[in-house]
Design a protein that fits this description.
By secondary structure, this protein is an alpha+beta fold. Helices cover 43% and strands 20% of the residues.
């Protein structure tokens, strides 16, 4: 326990008096977490079956049925990003938050394990993840009240397309080139359903122009639409 003392003025009049404030810094409360919002991730997984859908779409990523499945890893990756992390070290930071990690349906892997699992996601696994995301979107749509669901299904469908360069630090990474800013970067294309949510998110070669990526993204987004749209 450490005591920090600070003095302050009680009165601005001549002959002003001083009083001493004592603040004590104790041991951090281990039952608290700054990532309490992860309970919403766990609840969505319970109600929409996100992990099960991801496992079905991604398929096995390891020879032995041990540790995290592909769906559990994908959900953990999303949780780490929701906590504001943008690097593999974010997995270790979330693991250090035992309370926050305990809110998730599956444990968070270490950064080294996450890198190994991510390397096993080839094109087939990525396409399976897209199909699973479409299924989860359809389940969320089906869970809406009838009037709200009817409004979305009968109204106009607006797909917003966007592209963003992600800076990396090695020219040996796949499909990266220098951008007009001089940064070594890859390009991520996103299709967002304005009335409901994300339809598609994918990475393409930085050598492709935004127009080329737009055509590819729009085709994938239309494929990922729930039935009835």
């Amino acid at each position: 326990m450490k005591t920090i003392s600070r003095r302050r003025t009680v009165s601005g009049a001549p002959g002003r008096r001083w009083t001493r404030l004592n603040a004590r810094v104790g041991v951090p409360n281990g039952s608290l977490t700054e990532n309490g919002g992860l309970v919403l991730v766990a609840e969505l997984d319970r109600t929409l079956g996100i992990t099960a859908a991801l496992d079905t779409g991604i398929g096995p990523v390891k020879m032995r049925d041990r540790g995290l499945s592909g769906g559990e890893f994908a959900l953990a990756l999303a949780a780490v990003q929701l906590c504001g992390e943008d690097h593999l070290v974010g997995f270790d930071r979330l693991r250090a938050d035992t309370v926050g990690e305990g809110l998730l349906p599956a444990p968070v892997p270490a950064a080294t394990t996450a890198a190994t699992l991510a390397a096993r996601f080839k094109q087939v696994q990525r396409e399976g993840l897209e199909r699973a995301s479409s299924q989860v979107t359809a389940r969320a749509l089906a869970a809406l009240p009838i009037t709200e669901r009817a409004r979305i299904l009968t109204g106009p469908v607006t797909i917003d397309l966007d592209a963003k360069d992600i800076e990396v630090y090695s020219t040996r990474k796949e499909q990266v080139v220098r951008s007009y800013k001089g940064e070594i970067a890859g390009r991520v294309h996103a299709a967002h359903w304005a009335q409901a949510g994300v339809l598609f998110l994918g990475s393409r070669s930085r050598c492709n122009t935004p127009v080329q990526g737009m055509h590819w993204t729009s085709r994938s987004a239309r494929t990922g639409r729930p039935r009835g749209l």
